Amino acid sequence: MTMVDPADAPTVPAAVLNSLIGREGEVAALVALVADPSARLVTLTGPGGVGKTRLALRVVDELREAAARSGADRREAIFVPLAAITDPALVPSAIAAALGVRIAGDRAVVPRLVAVIGGRRLLLVLDNFEQVVEAAPIVTDLLAVCPGVSILVTSRETLRVAGEHLMPVEPLLLPASDGANDLACAGASAAVRLFVARAAALRSGFVLDQTNAATISAICCRLDGLPLAIELAAAWIVLLPPATLLAQLAQRLAVLTGGRRDAPARQQTMRDAIAWSHDLLTPSEQRGFRRLAVFVGGFDLEAAEAVDGDPREPSSSALGSGEWDLNTLDLIASLVAKNLMRAGVGVNGGMRVGMLETIREFGLERLAASGEEEPIRQRHVAWAMAVAEASVGTLRQATPSGRLNRIGEEHDNLRAALRWCATAHQPEHLLRLAAALGEFWGLRDHPIEGLAWLSRALAEADPAPSLARADAAFHAGQMAHYQGDDDRGTAYLMEALAVARELGADERVALVLCYLGIIAEDTGRYAEAEARLGEAVAVARQSGDGYALALALAHLGVVGYGRGDLAAATARLEAAAATARTGGYWLPAFVAELYLAHVTTERGDHRLAANRYREVLVIVGPKHGGLLDGGRDADTLSRIAGGVAALAAAAGQPERALRLFAAAAGQRQTVNLALALPERATYERAIATAQHRLGAPVASGVWTTGHALLPEAVLAEIVAAIDLLSGEPPGESRYGLTVRETEVLRWITVGRSNQQIAEALSISHRTVTTHVGHILAKLGVDNRAEAAVLAVRDGLV
């Protein structure tokens, strides 16, 4: 063995001149882990560009500084760059070179390396181990015979050896999606702070402020919080303002270039960083990686198999020949281990896998270059069609939340399939897919998006009669009506009626007639509504369609309520409720029970009305997996809130009534819904009365508070009102909140950030943060949303 010239010996690189932002917690945890004698092998894993090397170097610096201060732990830190090495057998030689010696010959390298180390106390930092991962046994051998050695590895995949302690390095914290427009929320994001720091270093005077916070937050979200991507993007601030940069990032990889000249080649562009990982994959892994990149928002194993093909069967001629040498689960496991995919849990509790969007874009580039994009896209569309069509009809049954959540989980994938059908000029597939999604769009508050796709599909598809065309026109008519365009809605429904009649699809005829009646009902044309709904009842009875029958009967009851004939309304609504219960149909049951509660309020029986509203919540509430599971469905929530508000007004509770009326208006506004007859006139009178009783200043404040309530708080307010009006008092508050804490809690319930609360109360941000911590502790909850629900439920605000 010979000594290496000092000029040739790798050393620990100088500390990174740029500060390491947003990694304070990881640095502290890693320093503690590396100092633990039982953790002699620690592996930092994560995707390319996430900052593993920088984190390792910072830990080395921290350990050196701690040793200099205390005189303890005199371990040497040796940095071993492995990026240029592709042969695992050369790893011991690389370590020896980093130690300043050259080992001659090619035999018994490890024993000679052990002799070089001797009794020295070393921390070896093995950087970029992923391309020599087969050398992992050498690492364990070294640890076994060198008790003074600890090893810190950076790698895009784990070593999978005994004694390995893993520390995944995640992308930087992004702004909360519900606070991205808030300056304080953006400033709290490590990703945003990194972008601003790098941009300010290049453009003097660049700061985060209210004018650019939302745009910079969106830039960082589009870059998945990857530090390398953020730094590459920030470099463009010299030429591009944030809004222009955000627009350019529609093609991320084309923009994310021009890295530091002193950075390794793999970090000069984001594409190079990802290609480094991609090129280490086997051909089968590369093929699976690019194919699975078609999924947007993740996928499960069944979806992956549908698109990537059956591993037990030969590939189709369109996709190449030969059999797969990896089954789908093995493929996914390998890609997750190599940090090209991320595994999680789906809404059904099963495994769900996805890619960071920056990595997915690289995969789509490779898919396009492979020549197999079209057949893979066709497989993706076929899978999406199966998922959507499997939901048709099932959403009418009781407890639809689970099925809705399943479609919601795949909504981004379904959108991608719709876009492909549109751009690939496949109008029949577009029509089928849009028609199958119509019910979901209506129930999950997507009327604008849904109507856009449905109208496009109807315009581009063959006008020949088909069930898909009837369904698409029906859902388009519903959604146009939801948005207040009744002329357009009626036109679509009339087309659906004509197609359904021509095909002899009586169950569709009954349902279309029902919704034509609903449009007439909502606009006060009660005679026309009664005629349409009566015809729907007759067709539904003839065809044996219990769902359409129950819904038509329920809306005949609504017409009776609108006419002021409470006896007729009650009889029809009770018949509808009975039919709905027999068939297990939640929507007709919801309409019937809701209007029975309205009728009972009109009759002055406030306690019974409150209990009827409680029954409405049983049908759609979260405890039973209904639409309000998780506080979703603004339309349903607003309808219940409005009814309970009218009850509170009738019962002499003007402040609670006005707050609930405002909450209902706020929920309708989120999905651009108008308040329809027949209850509109009743509500308008009740609102005017409550405002008069409270006086203009108080009424204005109450309305503002109610209008801003988050869905969870609206639901809690409804429950509190029902408890009070049914004779069941809300739970007493025994939480010991101070006056100031109660004020802060009131602002929390309307969704204000700490910074906004500080400005409203003229106190510091730090003081608000302290108050919030005390409030959560006293209420015994984990987060602000739970605190808001508890506050409204127990009357604390």
Which homologous superfamily in CATH is the superfamily of the largest domain? P-loop containing nucleotide triphosphate hydrolases
What is the topology, as strand order, of the major beta sheet? 3-5-6-2-7
Any idea of the CATH topology of the largest domain?
Answer: Rossmann fold
Strand % is 5-15%
Number of domains: 6
Total helical segments: 38
Determine Rg (CA atoms, Å).
32 Å
If classified by CATH, what would the architecture of the largest domain be?
3-Layer(aba) Sandwich
Any idea what the shape is? Answer: globular
Helix/sheet category: mainly alpha
- Number of beta strands: 9
Low-confidence stretches: 1-17, 311-325, 729-733
Biggest sheet record: 5 strands, parallel
Terminal CA distance: 78 Å
- Helix fraction bin: 55-70%
Please tell me the overall pLDDT: 86
Write up what this structure looks like.
By secondary structure, this protein is mostly helical. Helix content is 61%, strand content 5%. The strands form three sheets. The chain has a five-stranded parallel sheet, with helices on both faces. Strands 1-4 form a two-stranded antiparallel sheet. Helix 1 packs across helix 2, helix 24 runs parallel beside helix 26 and helix 29 runs antiparallel to helix 30. The chain starts with a strand and ends with a helix.
